Amino acid sequence: MKRSTSLFAALVLILATVALAFAADGNARKGKYLYRQNCRTCHGASSSDLSPSSKTQAEWKKVFAKPEALKCAKEWKGLSAADKADIFAYLHDYAKDSPSPAKCN
């Protein structure tokens, strides 16, 4: 019994790791669309209010590490994990310290 429980726990851990790896690989192109649909409506129409280049890649990682601290946490809960990964990919890939920072949104 103990061996099957350990095997089950190991399998769950492996599956969770694989799921997180895929979730981290968001689609930045789709993320840009989702960002415009979901984020800009609350954070203002001004690109200086909230845009990928308003933070560094490390700052975006910190923001997404604690989504419950966001001002829009209630709305954020309504997004799927895939949508959140896509938005993160867009913001992270075009952050102010990225190889290709966002110029216009």
Task: Give the class from helix and strand content and strand pairing.
Answer: mainly alpha
Number of β-strand runs: 0
Which parts are unreliable, with pLDDT below 50 for 5 consecutive residues or more? 15-23
- The oligomerization state is single chain
Main sheet characteristics: none
Mean of residue pLDDT?
78
| Count of discrete alpha- or pi-helical segments spanning 4 or more residues | 5
What general outline do the C-alpha atoms trace? Answer: globular
- End-to-end Cα distance, whole Å, is 56 Å
User: What string, H for helix and E for strand, traces the elements in order?
Assistant: HHHHH
Strand fraction: under 5%
Helix content: 55-70%
Radius of gyration: 17 Å
Secondary structure: elements and pairs:
Elements: H1 2-24, H2 28-43, H3 57-65, H4 73-76, H5 81-93
Helix pairs in contact: 2-5, 3-5
What's a quick, concise take on this entry?
This protein is mostly helical. It has five helices and no strands. The protein is globular.
Describe this structure in words.
The protein has 105 residues and is mostly helical. It contains five helices and no strands. The protein has helices at residues 2-24, 28-43, 57-65, 73-76, 81-93. Helix 2 (28-43) crosses helix 5 and helix 3 packs antiparallel against helix 5 (81-93).
What labels describe this entry?
globular; about 60% helix; about 100 residues; single chain
